[in-house]
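tokens incoming
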């Protein structure tokens, strides 16, 4: 029989949100009315595949205080920034993936070398690996130095 306990914390923030839902056509019209230079049809097609709020996040540096856009702000320029950010995110995730796999490989190697092939499954091994808060940095630093 499973026994569980603990707290379930739920907080509801009530916020008045009075903006109406806008269709893709209305979203495009709103951006164009605020000064975005764009071909309406290609803007609508892009909004069907790019979340409006994600896309407009890239417009913030090109906004004036009155929510209009700085003269000369083009859809192509904003789309370039959006695509650049997307490609950069992919490159960073690939690099993080390689780093994670390398560290995981080194850690598993050390565990297997010191505690056997299935040492990672032993509760006692995990207890030996727990860190004291005051000296955690020192332990981690020494452990990482061993990984070189």
């Amino acid at each position: 029989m499973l026994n569980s306990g603990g707290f379930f914390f739920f907080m509801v923030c009530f916020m008045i949100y009075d903006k109406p839902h806008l269709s893709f056509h209305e979203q495009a019209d709103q951006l164009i009315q605020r000064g975005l230079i764009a071909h309406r049809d290609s803007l609508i097609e892009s909004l069907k595949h790019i979340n409006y709020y994600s896309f407009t996040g890239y417009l913030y540096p090109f906004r004036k205080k009155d929510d209009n856009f700085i003269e000369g702000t083009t859809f192509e320029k904003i789309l370039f920034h959006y695509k650049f950010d997307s490609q950069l995110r992919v490159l960073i995730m690939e690099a993080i993936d390689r780093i994670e796999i390398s560290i995981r490989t080194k850690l598993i190697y050390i565990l297997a070398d010191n505690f056997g092939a299935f040492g990672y499954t032993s509760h006692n091994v995990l207890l030996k690996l727990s860190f004291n808060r005051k000296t955690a940095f020192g332990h981690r630093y020494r452990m990482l130095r061993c990984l070189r």
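note: The chain has two domains: 18-73, 88-148.
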